[in-house]
Amino acid sequence: MVKASDRSAIDAVRPTRVVVLVDASPDALHALDMAADLARRHRVPLLAVSVEEPDRVRSAAFSFAREIGAVSGSIRPIDEARWSRHRQSAPASIRRAIERAAEARNVAWELVVLRGRLVDEVLALSEPGDFLMLGRVGWSMRLGRRLGRTTLALAREAVGTVHICSAAPLRDRGRIAVLVEDFDSAEAMLTAAAGLASAMALDLVVFLAPAVGDARSLETWASVIENFGSRWRLRKLSSMGTGEILRTLAEEGAVELVAGRGGAWLSSPAAARLLAHWRMPVLIVPGGPDE
C-alpha cells in the first residue's frame, strides 16, 4: 500500500497555481501535503484557503445539534465551549501546518482566511489555471459523511482541474479509469488520464457511456485512444448507474477515476453516490468545449 502523496501522477496536469482548502481534518491536511508537493514540482505558488462559514458557527449553538465521533461513531451533543476553543485555535494551527508544508519544499505560499459560504468564496477567487486540491471530507466527517458537500460542489462548479484525495492508503497497482461521456470532451480527459497512467506506470481503461458507445464504433474509439500512447483497454458501460460503474471499477482494479465536468454524469445523483462510496482518488478535468 502507498500513500497518494508518494506519487507524482497528478503532475500530468500542469497548473499555474495550486489551491488547497485547509482545515484540521486528516483528509484536508493530506491534501495540503499533496498540494505543496505539486506546487514545488511545477514551481508555482500555493494558495491555502480557510473559510469560516456563518451557518456552521450558528448551527453549533442549536440545542439539537449533534456530532458523530470520527473513531467511535457515537452520536453526542456538541460541546459548544470545546467547539468554540477549537475554532479559536484552529487558524493558528492551520497556519503552522501550511508553514511547515510550504517551507519544507521551498514553496511560495499565501493563506487566505475568508468569512462566508465556502463554495461561493472559493469560486470567487478561482482562476482557469488553478489546480484545486480537496480532501474527501473535512469537518463534516463528524456528521458521518464520507464525502463533504463542499468537495462535491467544487468538483462540479470549479473552473479548473480538481483532485479529490483521501488520507487513506491506496493500492499501488491497478488501472487508471477514465469515464468518457461524449466525443468532444474525450480529448481533454484522455490526455489527463494518459498522463496519469504514464506517470504511475499503470495501464489505462476507458469507460464509454452507453450513448457515446452507441454513437461511434469501438474501432473508431480504439483509433482515438491509440494516439495517447498508454497501454489501454476499452469497456462499454451498459448504464451510468452507480452500481454498474462501481462494479466495473472493481473488475478493472481501478486506483483512480478521471471524469469530466462537461458531461451530465458529474451533476447527477448517481455521481454523488459513487463518489461517496468509492474511496480512491478522483480527478475532475474541464471536459466540455466551452470550458
Structure report:
The model is unreliable at 1-8 and 67-73 (pLDDT under 50). The chain has 291 residues and is of the alpha/beta class. Helix content is 40%, strand content 22%. Helix 1 (26-42) runs parallel beside helix 3 (80-104). Helix 1 (26-42) links the parallel strand 1 and strand 2. It has helices spanning 26-42, 54-59, 80-104, 118-125, 149-157, 183-200, 210-215, 218-225, 242-251, 269-277, and strands at 17-21, 46-52, 66-68, 75-77, 109-115, 130-135, 161-165, 175-180, 203-208, 232-236, 254-260, 282-285. The protein has ten helices and twelve strands. The protein starts with 16 loop residues before the first strand and ends in a 6-residue tail after the last strand. The protein folds into two domains: 4-165, HUPs (Rossmann fold); 175-285, HUPs (Rossmann fold, 3-Layer(aba) Sandwich).
Give, in order, the helices and strands.
EHEHEEHEHEHEEHEHHEHEHE
CATH domain topology of the largest domain: Rossmann fold
Question: Hey, roughly how much beta strand do the residues contain?
Answer: 15-25%
Structural class: alpha/beta
**Helicity, in percent?**
25-40%
- Helical run tally: 10
Number of strands: 12
CATH homologous superfamily caption of the largest domain: HUPs
Q: Alpha-carbon distance between the termini?
A: 36 Å
Oligomeric status of the shown chains?
single chain
Gyration radius (Cα, Å) is 19 Å
Number of domains: 2
What strand order characterises the main sheet?
5-2-1-6-7-12-11-8-9-10
Task: Name the average pLDDT.
Answer: 80
Extract low-pLDDT stretches. 1-8, 67-73
Task: Give the overall shape.
Answer: globular
CATH architecture call of the largest domain: 3-Layer(aba) Sandwich
- Report on the biggest sheet: 10 strands, mixed
- CATH C-level class of the largest domain: Alpha Beta
